[in-house]
Amino acid sequence: STRLSFTEGNVTSVFSLTWQVRHESCGLPIIHHSKYVCDLPTNHRFPMGKFPRVLHFLFKDQVITENQVWVPEIASSDLLSCVINDEGIVTRCRYETGEVKNLLIILQPYEPLIPSPLFTGGTLLAAELALQRGLACSTAGGTHHAFPGFGSGFCLLNDLAVAAKYVSASLKRKVLIVDLDVHQGDGTAFIFKEEPRVFTFSVHCGKNFPLRKQQSDLDISVDDGLEDKDYLSTVEDHLPWLLDTFRPDLVLYDAGVDPHREDELGKLCLTDQGEPIIDLNLHSSISEFLVSTSWSSVPV
Ligand SMILES: [Zn+2]
Fold first, then answer.
1. N or C: which end of the chain has fewer CB within 10 A?
2. Beta strands 175-179 and 198-205: pairing type?
3. Strand (E) or helix (H) holding 30
4. pTM of this structure
5. 300 with 293: CB under 8 angstroms?
6. Domains of the chain and any CATH numbers
7. How far is the CA of 152 from the centre of ligand 1 (A)?
8. Which protein residues have a CB closer than 5 Å to ligand 1 (ion)?
9. Cβ proximity of 120 and 80 under 8 Å
10. Contacts of 297 (CB under 8 A, 6+ apart)
């Protein structure tokens, strides 16, 4: 069993649930681990508490029940090494032992078990389950700025890349990465620039981090201040033909919520109404265009 704690305002609540990998569980699989969060300094900019809060609201709003929650394992170093090079592995080990204090701008080794390999394990499990069942979501991940040799922009390991590499190389399946985080998926684009089985599609704000963009298979750079309708039509201008021509076996969707108008780093103007419409339209595009397509979502 796993205990999950989350903080809401000043009140800390603790769920005590029996979550294990349940092969008999029904309904949409939601992948979550209580260690998706670690302690950060109180004034730290990265809102790590969002990961358990996603799960909290799924329960609170009665969207899911306990038996839909799957607990991932940490991604093995064999799988990680498919994407991370020697330099990256050395850096990661030094980071984990606390030797590197400021490897990332943000995350510091406050716990020996840092969440990043767990995000990656969660995305791998989501990919597996999506291939088996058609759809699965993880409450964390989408760490698309991580490169093979170094981490960047709050991202230590590229969970999307590890999962896409596993599915494309080991399972010989085609993967489409749809990255709608407001920032370009630069690490993912770099990793798959010469990999025909993985197609990277990124819609992002052009005048935003990272300053130096990489080349995805398809990049759509949008202007500051874009609103729901134009954002939606931008995605719809490209996704249908992409699905029709590339015909992926699995879609990994980085469902970043930072195009929202209230995101301090986002610069776009999507609303509470617009964001879910985009998610819903994406899901229906997939089922219309490719019945056999699997789907996996990771918010960052
Ligand atoms: Zn982002």
1. N
2. parallel
3. strand 30-31
4. 0.84
5. no
6. 26-159 (3.40.800.20), 174-295 (3.40.50)
7. 12
8. 181, 183, 256, 258
9. yes
10. 126, 136, 137, 138, 253, 255, 279
